[in-house]
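Ticket #4471: structure export looks truncated?
Reporter: QA, pipeline team
Priority: medium

Steps to reproduce: submit the single chain below to the structure queue and open the exported record.
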Amino acid sequence: MDVRDAPANLFRAVNADARRWQILALGGLFLISVYTTDFGARPPHLIASFTGAMTAQIIGTFLTGSKFEWKSAAITSLSLSILMRAAAPWMWFAAGLIAIGAKFAIRYRGKHIFNPACIGIVSLCLLLGRDVWVSPGQWGQAPLFAAYAIGLAALVLSSARRLDIAFSFIGTFAAILIGRAIWLGDPISIPLHQLSSGTLLVFTFFMITDPRSTPNSRLGRIIFAASVAILAAWFIIGPNQRAAPLMALAALSFMTPVLDWLLPAGRFQWGNTNRSKEGRNHETQTPEIQAPGRGSNARPRLARP
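Actual output as written to the record:
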């Protein structure tokens, strides 16, 4: 093999599965958090969350007889270590365990309802109260700019291509916060500060854009993203909930199967099923392309759970 072909071959290998771009991008954001903040993500947090996520992945794979897959656990643990802060190391382990466990346990028509990292964090916030919280993620202007570039590049390059839901969410969310500031005569610096956080960035590019827990159709994704943005803005304006976007996403996750039924479309599949090593045994992959909906006579086939 010609050495000059190595970069192209490497790109094709990474581009074969959108999750590889997500892992690289989240790894970069993890390093930004580690090296730019005094109270940011730390390697022990990542190790604990990864251990919990992999434990759930191994158990779920054994119980369902599906093919073992590590990428989802890696993405979830990176997200947990970047976003979540806790009073004790075991809480990161518990978050990873709950996150991946919920992916196997809470499903509808072979598709998990909740984004794993989101439900892991929200569950512990509700169960443990002040012992678990979401990092505000104030990284500074230069690191934040670099982080947005990483997140945008990951979405553009990956086969998931969920820019529609990312822009719908952040556009609606920003419009509400800025519009409220103008209506009340507040300085624009207030909503700009609320929008300038690493936490919001990770949520926008790597959580609400998860193709396995969001609607299949473009119109459904836009409706879903706008709804999450409205509820998240209300959480900030009303009860002043710091984890507002995550709480809103968890609360409205039930909309995904409803919108898939009302607006049926082909279901996203990780990678190319003709070439994917995971094949059809991946625990969140389904063999059917046409999603069941109104007017469909085909009986839905459940994926291997």
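Status: closed, not a bug. The export was complete when the record was re-opened. Leaving a note from the reviewer for reference: Confidence is low (pLDDT under 50) at residues 272-292, 295-305.
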